[in-house]
């Protein structure tokens, strides 16, 4: 097929024709500014309700904050989207989309077209969906979304939204590096047609829009929207909400929106948008849904017949999906394996090893040596109790006779069954084994119906919910199809290979040949083999430029790449060496986060101007290389633009930008938070008597805390927070110590990361996390289940890691740090209840416990030091001492007597007694031993040395003395003596938590 490069207007016409030929209606761009085609009522309102709707339209999308005066090659304040809505989901939207690319002149066989996870949300309208960004040789060209909610309303049926980024597509197709150079029409460039408007509107949005006028307009539009809602006119109300949104965006671009104003405006627009959505749905219902009701596919028939097999055969079970998120690929394979093992174990069907593999588009399970069927068995059915089954004369009662009839057996077949000493009448009945296909049919359908992920979605199947749509099933036992029916899906023997293949659907002859068949068609189901291919090719390709890929250091990225592809095609690419002048962290962050490229380094670890991209399947490698290089070049141009702009901006000015960044409505702006962090750090410094140069460093770093969040670079690449603070601080003339402290305060970023290397940095990092934990727990925003939007678990784990690695900060216990944070938050008028601080402390201690368990420490020993974990370094020292004492019989003896003391002393017993009441030799000897110890040390090793004198007296005391004497005064004295011993031991360890693991008998 010959592909012709189109002008932009040709492309818009081609897409319009393509989608109208497939039943879409064409509507016109909306007549007021929208930030995306989604907000045109042809999408945001029409996806509501049960009516079918297929529409396609061009939408100029206006985003004032993307204004760049026409200078940035990739950013425009007005860009062109082509919007498609398919309601309901037609069942093959990805295939329809790929065909549309060919209509644009894109050779999808030669290019690397990928569906990469993207979860879309618009909180301002209460809308969200799951889907992908579509990559063309690494360039995002389309947003592809299964709409799940709009206006806060769950959508039924689900709509598919496809949003093409036309300028990006045209730049890639025409091979130009600036939007101005796009051939818009014959003889007319994009810049010639729209360059003036781009410059002038950028001027307006960034420099000239009158702030007070825009604020007045916002109020007028919001009030008019409210009036239209009250008059039950959803369309004009929606128009006014759109105008509100655009006016807000203009104010935001002018830097005129404070955190409080932002929160209020968003809340107001969200309320209006949701009311518009509900009103629209009500009005359509009142109009009796003029477009009719959408029809979904019918349910697949339930299986009634099952094939018979002989001997033992392999089961191959494939669950075919649209591209799963990389994080779900491995988890789903494990979940399917666990479910298969559990459900087959509940049957009598014998089988061999169970194995699962997964790619982005399929999860495959193999069960070896499946027997032809279950063996026959007997089952016992329990009836009424024997006492109720026979009368005084030994005759069957009506209850027993009714039980026999219900079981369709003769009364003579009843027998007595003993269950835990209670006798019942029962019947033993034959339980014929089922054939393998029948057993597997039920098991496999349950597995598919029960699939779940961290984020689930719906599609055109009302009964299923999973991370992405499930589109086909294969179930083969040997050469026989296992009838599996799940909602609208029925299993067969047809699998799907690459969508670009000449035959995208392939029939499987028998279960045993499945993996080889996939490999013939260019798909590797085994992730270990895909990984090996990526690793080996990365090494070979990087060696060609005298470089290497740090596979260990990039392990997480390699894992992600493996789960993004079905057939790895690694390609070596390069970029201009001049970009190496940028900090390497910027370059590698762009490669990893945005592009999933593996950086290439020399043997000293220095970055080289090369990368390894991994395409999916057979492609034109030169074409794909050029595309990926162009994408990276554009991203590096953006980064260089941000870098230069930031270097020209004073640090204090960047810090001032934090006042415009929202943190949490009740806790104020990011500027408020940065101020609190600085003050908390100063309090913590006083707690540890920090002085000298370290104190000076801390004070200056506290003044600049979080300033880089106001930089253009970190706004674009948030993971570079801290890294850019260090770079910008050094270049602004700050000391190396201050720059390092600003970098350190962001550490650790995740489990296993390094902790701050400097004391000032550690104090800032602790202050940061204490503020986060105290503030958010204080307002009730604590983690629930898998939801942790503010990463509080990570923050708590960070506190623990820092305090463990910086024992010089042991005076900063969890209560001390949290109290310092709560006081600063309280100064803003937000009360943090003491119960919340206790809850945070316990939450953080649990992170400490998990770190030790993950390290492989004995769980009883870990439990014994948890009461000390509010000072993690002290808990670590105690645990180390405890581990050194394990195996010492003298220590085991001490543990045993202390546990015995603790068990016999009632809670609340005062640790005081009258020695004059103690007259028996054994109790006098124990009293003297306690007096000899005096004030026991709290360090475990010293405590053990000091209290070893207690072991024999305590044992003799329990042998000779009746603790619970009848005389109250004597009993109180004996219990008080034991309570004194318990009190001596309490600060050292939770002795009871050790159980009997260290007792002499256990050795």
Structural description of this entry:
The model is unreliable at 999-1003 (pLDDT under 50). The chain is an alpha+beta fold and 1003 residues long. Strand 6 (139-150) and strand 7 (153-165) form a beta hairpin. It starts with 7 loop residues before the first helix and ends in an 18-residue tail after the last helix. It is 46% helix and 17% strand.
Multimeric state:
single chain
Low-confidence stretches: 999-1003
Question: What's the main sheet like?
Answer: 7 strands, mixed
Strand content: 15-25%
Instruction: Give the termini distance in whole angstroms.
Output: 79 Å
Main β-sheet, spatial strand arrangement: 1-2-3-7-6-5-4
Compute the gyration radius: what is it?
35 Å
Structural category is alpha+beta
Count of extended strands? 26
Average predicted local confidence, pLDDT: 93
Q: Which shape, going by the Cα principal axes?
A: globular
Helix count equals 34
Q: Which bin fits the share of residues in helices?
A: 40-55%
